[in-house]
Every structure is written in C-alpha cells, then in structure tokens.
Amino acid sequence: MSHNTFGHLFRVTTWGESHGAAIGCVVDGCPPGLSLDEAFVQGFLDKRRPGTSRFVTQRREPDTVKILSGVFEDDRTDGPVTTGTPISMMIENVDQRSKDYSEIRDRYRPGHADYAYDAKYGVRDYRGGGRSSARETASRVAAGAVARRVLGDRIEIRGAVVQIGPHMIDPERWDWDETGNNPFWCPDAETATRWESFLDETRKAGSSAGAIVEVHASGVPAGWGAPVYGKLDAELSGALMSINAAKGVEIGAGFAAASLSGEDNADEMRAGNEEGPRFLSNNNGGVAGGISTGQDVVARIAIKPTSSILTPVQSVTREGEETDVSTKGRHDPCVGIRAVPVAEAMLACVLADAKLRHRGQTGM
C-alpha cells in the first residue's frame, strides 16, 4: 500500500490497523531542541480517545503513547528534547473485539471502503476496517502534537463542532470556552443541549448522523504558502479531506462566497500596525493567493454519518450475491465529534510544514 506519508519538510508517516497489535507514526523533519515528552502528546490523544461519553464508540482504548525515538534527555537539557532525528511513536491496541466483525467477513458494508479495498488489493482486513478505520487518526493526533511544538506558543489551534445532522449552532452564541463543557466540542451551550436529545434518539434507532467541524489557527504570520502548486489552502484542503469520513472542505466563507457580491466578499483593509493591515472581514479564511495573510486560518470539514449502523442495509457478498448488512460492534453515532482533535492535528501539521518551507526559502 502506497501513500502513507504526507508533508514536504515536516513529514508524517502513519502505520498500523484497527485490530492489529498497535498503531503509530513516524515524524521526520522536526527541528532539534524542542521540548517534547509523552505527557504533552498524551494530552491531545485524550481529547480524541474513544469511550469518553455515550455519544462516541464504547471501545475502551487508553491510547497510551510511547515515544520510541527522536528525543533525548540528560543533565544538559531541561527535560526531553527533540534531536532532529525521526520521532517514532506507538499506541498499543488493547480492546479489540474482532469477533464482532465475523459476520461481515464476506459481506461489503455500504458506505465503507470494503468493496473498494477488495477491488484494489484483492484482500482486506475486515476487522473494523483495518487500515481504513478511524482508529488510524490517533496516529495523526500524536503527530499533530509534535507539529504544535514546531509552531510554538504564538500560534493557537482550536476546533469545534458547528453542526450535527440538520442542527446548526447560532454563531452569535459562539463561546470557545464552552467547547470544553460538553461532550460535543460545541461552542454554543443551547445547541449542545439540542444535540444531546437528537443523538440519543439517533443512537437508540440504530442509526447515525453527520457533522461539520470548524478549525481555527490564530497567530499565523503573513507569508506562509506558495502561490501556485503549494497553496496553503490547497494543502490544508487535501489534509482535511484525507480524514476518515470527510466529504467536503471549505476555507473561510467557502461555498457561501458564491452567493456574495464582490463588495461583500472583499476583505477590506485599514491601517494596522507593524504586523500588517487590519482586515474588516475574513471571507478568505486567512489565505489569499495561496499565501497566509496574518488573519486567522479558518476551515470547515463535512463528516458523513457513520457507515456502521445497526439498521439493515442492502448490499452484496464478495461472490456477488445480494444480502443485507447490519454492523455489530461499538461505533460512533456521530463520528464527527471525535474528528475535532484530528482536524486540529492536520491543521497543525500543514502549518508546521508551511513554516519550515517558508523558513527554507526566505530564511525567516
């Protein structure tokens, strides 16, 4: 299988399957001398960890990370620091229930990659989807923690769920602090209560719901990205679209920009300070001509409903016989909830790569 690596100077390779012994990643290109220990990485993995509420899969994985290489500590360093060599991290799988998937060994689950994998490789790991499982995203979150060290404290990356099913938040009630007070990463307390009832009904019906996740990066300086084939927004879009169950990405106003007039869409400018002009809006999502403007980088990702549902759906077997499939096991009624730390991690990795490439070209 090819294409398990992304990035240019800051490069991330992930490995492992949902029901294998472990999953992990190798991060190459991280500069030396950055503070990095397992506790820092673990803090981000805990945000994504399954089994934290009734609204996510009840698979009980502690997601304990082990750093196997790329850091060093002695009496000359203030704690473990990166050495500039590849950073390898491993997360053991401890709560697999492969028998839950025995009935779909020879049946294709609609909406999953089962048929596509079989068509391409002639073999597939049916236990939880193998490599196509959202379990792989834990490795991305670990890599994202390293990327945040590369970016430094000046750049803040945050994410929130802004829609579940047909229920959207009210942007006027947006409160970042609220995202930590509910199990949905919802910035609107009133809407979070509505989602609770909606997902309880969805889960009891054996169904699932989609979601929209929004991520912001503040403190990104102007100048990152390249204007043609290395556009910052293009690379961010590709990274976000690589997340399991992602079906759409918007930067800034996104598709809504098509209904705006030129006057409304223009991010007008006034005199600012030594860091650049003051923008009166941010329809461009912090990127113009593929290059960061100094505004917040803003993106949204649409996550489809979880394909593993208890409700029987029509399908075929590997031999081409018609059948019905209902997926047993432990699944998210809305996988978009746990996509928030994953989207944050992908944004961090793209920006870390952009920072290093900018420094390599301009020396700044």
Structure description:
There is one protein chain. The protein is 24% helix and 23% strand. It is of the alpha+beta class and 364 residues long. It has a five-stranded antiparallel β-sheet with strand order 1-2-3-7-4, covered by helices on one side. Helix 1 (38-48) crosses helix 7 (339-362) and helix 5 (232-241) packs antiparallel against helix 7 (339-362). The chain starts with a strand and ends with a helix. The mean pLDDT is 91.
What is the compact description of this entry?
The protein is 24% helix and 23% strand.
Mean pLDDT: 91
Output the structural class: alpha+beta
Strand count, sense and barrel status of the largest sheet are: 5 strands, antiparallel
Q: Can you tell me the overall shape?
A: globular
Order of helices and strands: EEEHEEEEHHEEHEHEHEEEEEEEH
Uncertain regions spanning at least 5 consecutive residues: none
Strand order of the main beta sheet, please? 1-2-3-7-4
